[in-house]
Amino acid sequence: MKYVSSRLSSGNKLFPTEIHIDPNGIKIKEPGVFNSRSTFISFVDIVSVSIDNPLVGFSTLTFFTNSTSVQVNGFTKKQSEEINALIIQGKN
């Protein structure tokens, strides 16, 4: 599965963030003009997922691992709930 953040959200105007759900984990791709960052987090390493759904605007997802956390924003409430459900399903 592939989820793409909205271009209307902050920080995603030119190059929106992408989340790819693979059978073994999630890949977060943050493209940029001169460099891009790609992070893979295995389902085993994900301790918890925090979703901040404001009344108006886009959701912020925070993926907590044993040693660090990764935060992405610009996803709809529906997308963030689907991503969380797929992570829970992948952990089981």
Overall description:
This protein is α+β, with helices and mostly antiparallel strands and 92 residues long. It has a single domain, classed as Roll (PH-domain like), CATH 2.30.29.30. The protein contains 1 helix and 7 strands, in the order βββββββα. The protein has one helix spanning 77-91; strands spanning 2-4, 18-21, 25-30, 37-42, 46-52, 59-65, 69-75. The chain has a 4-stranded antiparallel beta sheet with strand order 1-2-3-4, with helices on one face. It has a 3-stranded antiparallel beta sheet with strand order 5-6-7, with helices on one face. It is globular, with a radius of gyration of 13 Å. It starts with a strand and ends with a helix.
Walk me through the topology:
Elements: E1 2-4, E2 18-21, E3 25-30, E4 37-42, E5 46-52, E6 59-65, E7 69-75, H1 77-91
Antiparallel strand pairs: 1-2, 2-3, 3-4, 5-6, 6-7
